[in-house]
UniProtKB/TrEMBL annotation:
One of its GO terms (cellular component) is peroxisome. Pfam families: ECH_1. InterPro entries: ClpP/crotonase-like_dom_sf (IPR029045), ECH/Chromodomain_protein (IPR051053), Enoyl-CoA_hydra/iso (IPR001753), Enoyl-CoA_hydra_C (IPR014748). The lineage of its organism: Eukaryota, Metazoa, Ecdysozoa, Arthropoda, Hexapoda. It is found in: Peroxisome. This is Enoyl-delta isomerase mitochondrial-like protein. Its main location: other. GO terms for molecular function: delta(3)-delta(2)-enoyl-CoA isomerase activity. Keywords: Isomerase, Peroxisome.
Length: 195
């Protein structure tokens, strides 16, 4: 999924017909997190860890470098990376059903996420169509003005965010290779299988 989203971001960044990239999901969840299946423990080799790390880094770099309006429409709970990347989107709309935004191990509802600046606006889940109508109207505004504003607002942070992402990926690689994580992961799977 990360590779596909990275390709979509990079291709739409070059497409002059695209002004807004809106990311949402089908179903009840914005994201249920990465699949932590039993096969993952056996597949955690240095090569697969490096490849996965590189894929996630490229995805986050594509978000950071995205030159157009980047909007998340959070239609339900967001778990894992899907919640942590919201801070680098330009605008985040969250359904009032986005009840558990797992952020730093703390379950946060959409209203609380708005209070802390992670979400721009909370909408009634039954009014999702209003968000798309609004974005359709935004797409009719001056693209030059919107792109200039985006360029000016992101210019100062972009370099720092890229460095932070690189550091986070180094740390993630260390965590993924640590015996502690592998032990915790196996314990998690054994508890999950007992349920």
């Amino acid at each position: 999924m990360y590779k596909e989203l990275t390709i979509l971001l990079n291709e739409s960044a070059k497409d002059n017909k695209v002004l807004i990239f809106a990311l949402t999901a089908n179903g009840d969840f914005f994201s249920s997190g990465n699949d932590l299946g039993a096969s993952m423990a056996t597949e955690m080799t240095p090569t697969t860890i490096e490849n996965a790390n590189s894929t996630v880094k490229d995805f986050i770099d594509a978000i950071i470098m995205y030159p157009k309006l980047l909007i998340a429409v959070v239609n339900g709970p967001a778990i894992g990376i899907a919640s942590t990347i919201l801070g680098i989107f330009d605008i985040v709309y969250a359904s009032d059903k986005a009840g558990d935004m797992l952020y730093l191990g703390y379950k946060m509802n959409a209203q609380e996420a708005k209070k802390y600046g992670l979400v721009s606006k909370v909408y009634n889940h039954d009014s999702l169509e209003e968000v798309w109508d609004y974005l359709n109207n935004v797409s009719k505004l001056s693209s030059e003005s919107i792109l200039a504003t985006k360029r000016l607002m992101s210019k100062w942070d972009r370099e720092i965010l890229l460095k932070v992402n690189a550091e986070e990926m180094k740390e993630l690689k260390k965590r993924l290779e640590s015996p502690d994580l592998i032990e915790r992961f196996l314990n998690f799977l054994s508890r999950k299988n007992k349920l």
